[in-house]
UniProtKB/TrEMBL annotation:
PANTHER family named among the record's database cross-references: PROTEIN PDC2 (PTHR19303:SF73), TRANSPOSON (PTHR19303)
Gene3D superfamilies cross-referenced by the UniProt entry: Homeodomain-like (1.10.10.60)
Superkingdom as given in the UniProt entry: Eukaryota
Keywords: DNA-binding
Protein name in the entry: Jerky protein homolog
InterPro entries in the cross-refs: CenT-Element_Derived, Homeodomain-like_sf, HTH_CenpB_DNA-bd_dom
GO cellular component: nucleus
Gene Ontology MF annotations: DNA binding
Subcellular location: Nucleus
Family matches, as PROSITE patterns: HTH_CENPB
C-alpha cells in the first residue's frame, strides 16, 4: 500500500486498520458494543520506527559550528539537522574528539569516530607490503601462504 492510497489495510486482529492521511500512518479501532461495530476517532501512530541518521564528519562540524554561533538547544539542533535529541547531545558532548578528528584526518565523508587499532599493527603493515610486492611480480598468494 502506498502513501497516497486511501484504502484501508486490515490488521490480523480484524479490529484495526491503517490509512495514510497527509503522509502519516493513522489507525482506528472498531470496538464492538452489543455485537455492533463502533468506529472511533483516527489516532496518529506515535512509535514509527526509524533508523538513526549517521552524519558525515562535515555535517557534524556544521552542526557544532551552528551550535557555537547560535547557542541553541539540542532539540533545535536535532530538528534542524534531522537527527534525534540524544544524538545531538552526544555530538555536543564529544565535540573535542570530533574537532580533533577533523584536524587530523580531514576526511569529510567519514561517518564513524572510532578508529580501531590492532595489537599487531606493524605486522599487518609488513605483510601488506610483502603482499603488494609479490602480487606485482604475479606470484599467486593464497590464505595458507599468508598464514606461514
Amino acid at each position: 500500500m502506498s502513501r497516497g492510497d486511501s484504502d484501508f489495510k486490515y490488521l490480523p486482529d480484524g479490529l484495526s486498520f491503517i490509512k495514510w492521511i497527509d503522509n502519516k500512518a493513522v489507525f482506528t479501532l472498531f470496538p464492538t458494543f452489543m455485537g455492533q461495530k463502533l468506529q472511533m476517532k483516527y489516532v496518529p501512530i506515535i512509535s514509527m520506527v526509524s533508523k538513526r541518521k549517521h552524519l558525515t564528519l562535515t555535517e557534524r562540524i556544521k552542526l557544532l559550528d551552528f551550535y557555537q554561533k547560535e547557542n541553541v538547544s539540542a532539540r533545535t539542533l536535532a530538528d534542524k539537522f534531522g537527527i534525534g535529541r540524544t544524538q545531538a547531545t552526544d555530538l555536543i558532548k564529544n565535540r573535542g574528539t570530533i574537532l580533533k578528528l577533523w584536524k587530523s584526518h580531514g576526511n569529510d565523508q567519514m561517518k564513524t569516530t572510532k578508529r580501531r587499532k590492532t595489537e599487531s599493527g606493524n605486522i599487518n603493515e609488513v605483510i601488506y607490503e610483502w603482499f603488494c610486492a609479490d602480487r606485482a611480480k604475479n606470484i599467486p598468494i593464497s590464505g595458507p601462504i599468508l598464514k606461514e
